[in-house]
Amino acid sequence: MFKSKFFSLVSLTLLPFALAQSEYTNLPEVPPGVFSASARTEIRTTVDAAWDALTDFPNYGAWNPFVRYALVTSAKNISLPDQRAVEGNYLFFRVQIPPLPLPVNEDTPDNILHTQFAIERITHVQPELGRLAWDFLAEIAVKSTRWQAVSDIGNGTVLYESHEEFNGPLAGILKATMGESLQESFVAQGEGLKLYLEGK
Q1: Which residue among 63, 97, 142, 192 is least crowded, i.e. fewest CB within 10 A of its CB?
Q2: Per its UniProt record, what InterPro entries does this chain match (predicted)?
Q3: 65-80: per-residue pLDDT in tens?
C-alpha cells in the first residue's frame, strides 16, 4: 500500500513537468489564421549547428526537400554578397510543394510539376533566442509570417520548430488547393534538417 501511494505521489509530482516538456515551444504566440502549417523535429545536434544550417541559404539544396534554392537579395532584387540572414533583406525561393522524397542533395532534380517561386522579407533574426522569421510577399492576396526556432532540450538534442499562419482573401483557396502539401513540406524540411545534421 505504501509503495502504491509513493508511486502515485511521484507520478502526480512529475506530471506537470512532463506536460510542460510536451507543450514546450520557443515560437512566439501569433494570432490564428485561416489555416497553418507547422513542424516539430528533435535532432541530435547542437543549437549552433542547427542555426548555421537554417541561415546558410546557399546550402539549402544540400538537405532541404522543400526549399531547393534560396537567394538573399536587396529590395531591388539584386543578389547580395552576404548571403546570411539580415533583417530587412529579401529572399528569393524556389520550392517544391509537395516536397521531394528524402534524402536530397544539391544535385537532386526538381519535379517541375511541383515547382513554385516565392519572395520573402526577412523580419526577425534572433540568434540569442534561436529564432528566425520572414514574411511572404503576395500583396493582399495571402499574408503570412513563417517562424522557425531551434532550442536545446537536453541530452544533446535540439528541438527544431517551424510554424506559419496564412491569412488574406485567397488564404481559403490556398488551403483547399495546397494546404496538405504545404504541411507535408514543412514536415519534410524538419526531417531533411535532421538527416543532414545527424549525418555529419
Answers
A1: 97
A2: Polyketide_cyclase/dehydratase, START-like_dom_sf
A3: 999 999 999 999 999 9
